[in-house]
Amino acid sequence: MLYRILVFFSLWLFSSMAFGEQFTGTLSVRIIDTISQDGLYVAKKIYTLQLQDKTRVSLDLSAVDLQERPLRTGDILTIVADVLPDHSYHVTELSSVSQRSARSSSLGVRTVLVLRVNFSNRSVSCSSNRLEEVLVTGSSNVKDFISEVSYEALELDFDLGNDAENDFYSVTIAADTSDSCDPDAWATLADAAVTDMGVDPSQYDHVVYVLPEQISCDWGGLASLGCQTGCQAWIAICDMTPLYTHELGHNFGADHSTTDLDNDRTIDDEYGDTSCPMGTAAAGMKHYHALHKENFGWYGDAAVDTVTDSSLVLLSPTEVSAFDDESEYKMARIGVPGRTIQNVALEHYYATFRRREGSYSSDLKASFRNKVTLHRKTRTGIKTYLIDTLSPLESFRDGETNITFLGKSTEEALVWLTESDQEIPSYNVSGTILKKNESPLVGKRAKAAKLVLKRAKGEKFVAKLDSDGNFSFEALPAGIYKARLKIKSKKSSTYRGKMKSQFLIHTGERSDVQLVGSVKKR
After folding, report:
1. 459 alpha-carbon distance from chain centroid
2. Using an 8 Å Cβ cutoff, are 369 and 387 in contact?
3. What is the pLDDT, as a whole number, of residue 468?
């Protein structure tokens, strides 16, 4: 008898689980920024698929390698999955993926509806006027932030009807702050309430739901990832401006800016890269780092220098390049050793240069300012890993791969990248010192002078001038140098030499360098 019962139970369990069925549908991806019991921030992705019959099912993608296939909201997937007794789908294979453009969420004009969602027992602590300040009208607001950091490639429109009134609405829903966390239910109720007011949420690219802070959820923000239409973001800390830039960044298609400072391929801190809003929002306002900007389509097509052999690359700061500026590199990338298939790099190191610039980089920490930052990212990935920051003359090495920050000017930085053990190149450089009227410095004054070049603190190179004002340096290492003219003083006739703020930039052999300065008698 017991044997028959066990057989019956086994047959029932088998019949309730279908193995290896194929399904096609439209994907929804959400990132939840949660706070763990020990107070640490952690992230969780939720995947759901809307099947062709409009049924929505939960996906378990733990058995699928997604590193080379970042999934976004709106992707059309064909999957092979086991349907489990709890009606979730355990995906064993992504047999095909039809992905839309990753940049369709982050270019052009995107319309935004803001709903202040009051619960039956508690209201949002920010007034509607305060929300407008945070998002549109304040001295530091999200609308202006997005315009600046995207170089006007992306504009947020909070006035769909063009009636000079921002689309901010307050609604009250039948929910209590002690209710179980259910952002979808709250969004449905809020959408219905604002629809009754004559506003159609489906007409907007983004809907931002601002909730009371005392809700039962363990997160401060939640957002759709890389959505084209029907984008949603939930905010539970209403006046924290950087939180909006973080959650909207998910809408635009960015995953988190993480750290892996020992480069062991294990994340140290999911939100640890504070050079970027896609790290912790608590770190304030600063530009998205260059890797996210490139994914968003905010640089010209020639902004990235892919290094396959030893190369010197000039980088302009992340903060200052325009959308259509293809004259300067924003990033230099070089393949990660051992991460290739058929000589194609699956993962790269990226070098970028950061500094404070504009209205929205004041919170960029000193640990990143005027430094070269190094990230690692898969070829098509949307999650980034900060691995190092370099001051002038500091290097990062991974086997024979070497990245060295050689120096900076007020406009750019010079980096050396090599995937061999090749030394930093050096050059023989000669030139002439000119006076302010552009005539050569000659005679005794010239012979009493010397030219001092400094590439970094504590490093200098000195050359004496001949009677015609000429100088020369042998084997001068590649770098960006500040030049200063010094003239030996005499009791009877003392002269002072001063160079203009000049920099020598070596990316190839230079000859006939002319430096303009002035010489005055004391």
Report:
1. 33
2. no
3. 92
Residue 245: which of 221, 209, 271 has the closest Cα?
221
- Confidence (pLDDT) at 15: 36
Neighbours of 364 (CB within 10 A): 24
Measured between alpha carbons, how far is 242 from 515 in angstroms, rounded to an integer? 45
> Distance (Å, rounded) from C-alpha 96 to C-alpha 79?
7
Which range has the worst mean pLDDT, 217-221, 302-306, 378-382, 495-499? Answer: 495-499
pLDDT at 243 over 70: yes
What's at 41, amino acid-wise?
Y
b/e code 165-195 from CB counts within 10 Å (16+ = b) = ebbbbbbebebeeeeeeebeebbebbbebbe
Find out whether 449 and 457 touch, Cβ atoms under 8 Å: no
* DSSP H or E stretch at residue 207: strand 206-210
Global confidence as pTM = 0.87
Asked if residue 76 lies in contact with residue 98, where contact means CB atoms within 8 angstroms, the answer is: yes
Measure the CA–CA gap between 163 and 264, rounded to whole angstroms: 54
Classify burial at 76, counting beta carbons within 10 Å of its beta carbon; exposed 0-12, middle 13-18, buried 19 or more: middle
Q: How far is CA 98 from the centre of its chain?
A: 25
**Beta bridge mates, 455:** none
Which tens digit of pLDDT belongs to each residue from 133-182? 999 999 999 999 999 999 999 999 999 989 999 999 999 999 999 999 99
Q: What is the CA radius of gyration of the chain?
A: 29
Confidence of residue 340 (pLDDT cuts 50, 70, 90): confident
Ranges assigned E (strand) in 364-412: 371-378, 384-390, 395-398, 401-408
3-state secondary structure of 238: coil
Burial environment of residue 321 by CB neighbours within 10 A (0 to 12, 13 to 18, 19 or more): buried
Q: How confident is the model at residue 114 (pLDDT cuts 50, 70, 90)?
A: very high
Per-state percent for the chain, helix, strand, coil, to nearest 5: 15, 40, 45
Contacts of 167 (CB under 8 A, 6+ apart): 112, 113, 114, 158, 159, 160, 161, 199, 204
Taking the C-alpha atoms of residue 350 and residue 330, their distance in angstroms, rounded to an integer, is: 10
How far is the C-alpha of 143 from the C-alpha of 132, rounded, in Å?
A: 10
3-12, 37-46, 83-92: the lowest-pLDDT one: 3-12
Of 483, 484, 441, the C-alpha closest to 465 is 441
Q: Are 245 and 280 in contact (CB under 8 A)?
A: no
Nearest to 404 by CA among 419, 414, 391, 415: 415
Rounded Cα gap, residues 64 and 68, in angstroms: 11
| Residue 17 pLDDT grade (very low, low, confident, very high; cuts 50, 70, 90) | very low
